[in-house]
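Ticket reopened. Same input as before:
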Amino acid sequence: MSNMGRQIEIGPTDNTSNERTPRSRLHLIPEAARASFAPYAPYNYGIAPSESDMTRIAAGRPRAQGDPIKVTGKLMDQFGRPIRNSLIEMWNANKHGRYTHIEDHSGLPLDPNFLGIGRTLSDDEGNYEFWTIRPGEYLARPDIGRYRPKHIHMSIRGGSSRMITQMYFAGDPHNDTDPMRILMGDNFDKNIGQEFATPDEGFDCGYKFDIVIGGKNPTFFETT
Amino acid sequence: MAQPETKSNLLTATNEDTLGPYYPISLCDNDSMDLTVIRSGIIHKPVGEKITITGCVKDINGQLANGCLLEFWQANANGIYRTPDNETHELLDPWFNGYARHRTKDGNFTLTTIKPGACGERAPNITLTLFSDGIMRVVTQLFFEDEPSNETDALLLSIPEELRERLMIKKTGSGDYNIEIIMAGDNETPFFDDLLS
Ligand SMILES: [Fe+3]
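Engineering reply: fixed in the latest deploy. New output:
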């Protein structure tokens, strides 16, 4: 019976990948059970416009330390069709590589003006935009001296789509040794934000990061 | 269904990535883990048997897996899912959404919900999506032991018999249930993959 799916690979040198990666191949979902696997998150988001400006704790407050950047792009399916009104959540470390998360015990400097958490909805064309601070790299494995390259976490949900991903930066010296980058192989390019000059005052630059929902992992079932 | 990549004009999908250890807890705006209350302070309650499921997520060493993001999805007591197609269904329960999202700090969780009904030919079940540091998303469905419809459920029948009991939520008392999710190794929980992958 050929009802086995993918074998998930273990991210080398990742802190927990070896402990948490299933050793059995995934089981393919029979057709009769497919629809039941696609959740619909209730639409009750009350999002303030200022939540997409992560360079300040709140509107009118001082700017956080570091380089302010734009992160913008289009959320779409594999046919290039826009995915509208989806909740996009973003979180990243401050310029020193420190998260405001209570479980970040790195001891790196905090910035009182940086929360590092934002959210927005994609618009009618599937476009989204965040302002944040370019994150610092951080030492993820002090025991072996391995850094995580600069990266920005993102979660996308809406309808049946559900994905967690990360945007990386071209040329980061730590990219090549990152366990997730190694698992992605050549497809890692899809997860690099494309730098562009922004005429807006007060921004170092922008990064275009289009997100395509589809393929093996990111979405279980598109219902269109 | 799978087509050779080279013949496809489809855009290449963005890679999924791990959750990392620092998923912001404050993003869990539905982090009540009580599906029986979708509006606080209202006398109406969902139809069905209220149950409490305690559980935990463990790694290959039997240690609790900290920092996991859990998403639960289930039908109401009548077996109806709250999807857009069902918005006007007469058996849709206006007091039940069926979707919960929770970040467990230490690997333990407690879900208060309504026991789901059978949806069509399917045995009552709860879909669990699990995000964690170190892995990309995995998904499974959890069933209730002693449900006769388990014998004919398409998903349960699709996996080897000896694996089925690992998906069973065990009854531990009146209205109380328990399940252990084992991410890797001995007694590993069966996880599922999209048919189209
Ligand atoms: Fe991170």
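Chain A touches chain B through 75 residues (CB under 8 Å). Residues A 148, 151, 153; B 20, 22 surround fe (iii) ion (CB under 6 Å). Please confirm and we'll close it.
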